[in-house]
Amino acid sequence: MSEPQAQNQELASKIRKSVTKMFAVTVGMLAFVWFGLVPMYDLICEWTGITGRTTSASEEQMFEVVDRDIRVQFLARNGAEMPWDFRPVVTHVTAKPGEIVQVDFYARNGTSQDMIGQAIPSLAPFESTPYFHKTACFCFDQQPLAAGEDIKMAMVFQIDPDLPEWIKTINLSYTLYEVPQRRQDLAAARTE
To answer: Which of 51, 115, 118, 132 would staple 45 via disulfide (CB 3.0–4.6 Å)?
Structure first.
């Protein structure tokens, strides 16, 4: 074998090794993102409480109402594939810590298909999360709507009087997503 052929073979061998290593690193990175990153993110958020997620019902508390105004602003948006009309009935309220407040959100399924939606909440600033208690919320359950149907959905909350003084405004945001795997189940149940 001539020297240029030996060099070419050696170069091809190095390239194959490099490609194999890059492929292994890529597979390892994808496996980490797929299996490790989301649980790790959830764990860090649970430890630090920085997500602003409020996903479970609180017991109504017998707080003393404090004479302090907190502006609570409501935002609503749809996930990328959600075609419903979804919005708060009022964009903000002024609440006093300790009082029980109810607000409504509106949803309309303007499509020709029965669908199910799920709203995912988030609070800002995230430091307000442990002080914002939802005693009832449409976001705790999936919302089935027939084609063309609309609904007003209630959310009831209390603000803990121990809310830090520097927090003057709380933003409660909902993102509405379709629950696609349930669409066929819903259609089948309506035809039975």
So the answer is: 51
Q: What are the sequence ranges of the domains in the chain?
A: 1-48, 70-191
Domain 70-191: assigned CATH number: 2.60.370.10
CA angle 39, 41, 45 (to 5 degrees): 115
pTM: 0.66
Question: Is-contact 106 87, C-beta < 8 A?
Answer: yes
Q: Three-class SS of residue 189?
A: helix
CA–CA distance, 134 with 59 (Å, rounded to integer): 8
Nearest to 105, CA basis, from 167, 26, 173: 173
Among 51, 31, 30, smallest CA distance to 41 is for 51
